[in-house]
Input
Amino acid sequence: MGTEIRKTLIKSATLADGRNCDVLIEGGVIQAVAPSLTDTDALIFDASSMILMSGLVDLHTHLREPGKEDSETVLTGSRAGVKGGYVALSAMANTSPVADTAGVVEQVYRLGKSAGLLDVFPIGAVTQGIEGKVLAEIGAMADSVARVRVFSDDGNCVSDPLVMRRALEYVKKFGGVIAQHAQEPALTSGSQMNEGIVSATLGLKGWPAVAEEAIIARDVLLAEHVGSRLHICHLTTAGGVEIIRWAKARGIDVTAEVTPHHLLLTDESARSYDPIFKVNPPLRTEADVMALRHGLADGTIDIVATDHAPHPGESKECEWQEAAFGMLGLEHALSIVAATMVETGLMDWAGVQNRMSVAPARIGGYTDHGRDLAIGAPAHLTVINPKAPYRVDRDQLQSKSHNTPFHGMEFAARVVATFFHGEIVYQDGRGE
Amino acid sequence: MKHLLSIADISRGDAIRILDTATELARVSDTPMKKLPTLRGRTIVNLFAEDSTRTRISFEAAAKRLSADVINFSAKGSSVSKGESLKDTAQTLQAMGADAVIIRHGASGAPARLAACEWMSGAVINAGDGTHEHPSQALLDAFTIRKHLSQGREDLQGLRIAIVGDVLHSRVARSNVLLLTKLGAHVTLVAPPTLLPVGVESWPVTVSYDFDQVLESVDAVMMLRVQQERMNELFFPNAREYSRYFGLNTERLNSLHPGAIVMHPGPMNRGLEITADSADSARSVIIEQVTNGVSVRMAILYLLLAGDTSIEAGL
Output
């Protein structure tokens, strides 16, 4: 690179708000946004009939490194991320060892830097070993090079109400947030799928909606009581949406996420007994899916987060109850949000930009992300072709794992390019 | 279809064909030379990844009476208990040339996985999977009920049957609800609310919490086994209270109408869900269920493996 200043001119893009603009990028930063720009030195990127938005930010990603490198690494997860249009991922803490010390979060942070495709922001564990008993070194992680602001025991619920209260209070010191995996363990011991008509027929142990809703209700009240900030991971139930709506109306500082798979799939898929559909929290009913979509549209649910959860083949090529929970999400999240929210008329592209870039960056405190496409903003951008139908192929993934439940499904919208600091880190059809 | 995975998969016509075939085959079992040459040279594997004596020996007897070669592959001492995956086991059986696998497994859906996968090509017969289904048990129960109560009809139209006990964890109950209603019977489930699944309201049955109220109006009472491990899982206060409300005792036995029969899939917990004198009473057909099991399982193997394609297509 040396002294060379790289310039790219994105031509004829449709911004999320509907404006048609050219965008000039230089030195990794947006230099101009205007209806008609020219620059003879710049590399031209033709974005006619494409949507251009601020780069996608995922607040919930399992990158598996350190410890489960057979499923995913920070590098392969980064490749999957940029293919899905992401410029920032939030690496969940349930690695091996658990990210409960400054040492581990700094390791993950550096692995992200060395992969260099996007920003990897480590999430710290709330409790040591995500065991729910003793607080992890939250302050040390916050003060580390990784500057952790989001803490989660995801995979496990912080089920002890006193531990949850203390964690909520403690992170107020630096404006942190506790991201709760809401699952009352006593109500879900051995659970395999949503408890309801389908589980009754299949003879699979049920995971009742109330086990999620009871924790959400408790935690919004705790957050109110101590005046702290709470984020609810992977909301799945209609009742959960109602509780969040109530809490927000009451002024409680709570945010919530929904995954692409919970926007699209239902517990009916379990009838195949194919554990590719086994996930925690489980796929729910059609009524829940509709409530989640409407909650996302009206802003009750703030963001879409993938809960990208890679697993090796043997973890899914087995009986349902032996199989691991989790499914891939990064590479098809945008397509699924377009299919379930935009193509259904529930949300426009500005809404997508908000729920997948602006709001997750705000919740995570990722100040370089989710910015307006304006002069001086870092050029982290996602280019989407809303009408380029394709069929998902589990053998054509960037992730190291293949456990996508979307194999064979057709989607209309796709990510065609991702810019990170002005560089094209992914472009459809080449340079994957 | 070439498998028997669940009652949900089979039609009323298939079920009646199995029962009729079992009736024919039962005659063979009554002759001194109990064997038919039908499945000579065919290899059937009994893959039992969960403890079971009666179902395994019943299938084994059925296969042997049809002259098949039977290999018993039980969990204890086999690689299944050493953590070998279902996939590896299936590929091993395929490599050995198994024509059919009779599988008993603790995981609901394990037979369905075996049948849907590309790991093996033989027929799969579900001999009980987790808390999902136990289709051959339901077929032998329907066979027994038909023999006693149908008065020559081919189905169970109009008969009233109570299934009593731990419906939540019972694969026998799930298969029987589907089969008995498919054959025209009216089924009432009797259990404490804790032992009925959430979602039972979608089943084609009546639900009652009061055994005594149901007794007088039923033609057959099917008692379900209460597993020992349920005792400490808060489903009911203790065994004594369970027996008091949901056990079949002499008093309840005497409230049944004269022609009603008493059934149990076995093994019984005498003194818990059924008293010894009820189990051994003249109304009890529990031992006969075991006998009928062999005939019904012969019929299943015969129809799946003996090459009658019109019937195979139906199954």
Notes: The mean pLDDT of chain A is 96. The two ends of chain A are 21 Å apart (CA to CA). The first strand of chain A starts at residue 7 and ends at 15.
